[in-house]
Amino acid sequence: MRNFITLLLLVSTPLTASCVVGAVSGATSKERSIGRSVDDASAAISLNTRLRRHGGMHGVSVEVADGLALLAGFVSNPEHRLDAERIAWSAPKVIKVANEIEVRNKKGWWAGTKDRYISTQLRAKIIADQYIRSTTINIETRNRVVFLLGIARSNGEIERIVAHARLTPNVKKVVSYMVTPQTRNAPIVPSQPIAEEELLGGIDETE
Fold first, then answer.
1. Residues 123, 139: contact at Cβ < 8 Å?
2. Whole-number pLDDT of residue 4
3. Which domain holds residue 124?
4. CATH no. for residue 54?
5. Which residues of the chain have pLDDT under 50?
6. What pLDDT is stored for residue 202 in this prediction?
7. Geometric angle at alpha carbon 40, from 38 and 45, rounded to 5°
């Protein structure tokens, strides 16, 4: 019996350690607690599972940050769009829902590749910016529209992140759902959609 208990502890220890490391690494920012990070991850998994069970939601992507569930992508009819939002509100640990799902035909593989490349470019810009220190930034790009959500240290930091998104090549529009620790409990109000011609403007690096 003692040998069995010892073996069980040896087998379970690596798994427990990896879970702890994963939880801690996902919450390196002071603005976001470990508990909130775990809740967000749990909500995203639950929401994705529920959407897949419903059917017709393969074009929908989910991001959850600080209890805000962002639904993006596309569905084939308006009913699926409403169903997705209803499912999101029913998911545990979801406090707010932002529904940015489009009703249209499925986009091609190449369009999805371009979206992923935009997200990668923007992420690299944010990491390289020494004035942006927040690590709780989620980027979701769909059909060349960039959605930003998460917690920033200040409104000024949000402005820098949005500016980087605006200047990323091939971006059509930027929508920000980012908040600060002071505004995280406010109602969901996305930033004013940016017209495509405005994306050619510059950024004042002296701010």
1. yes
2. 43
3. 109-198
4. 3.30.1340.30
5. 2-28, 193-207
6. 37
7. 95
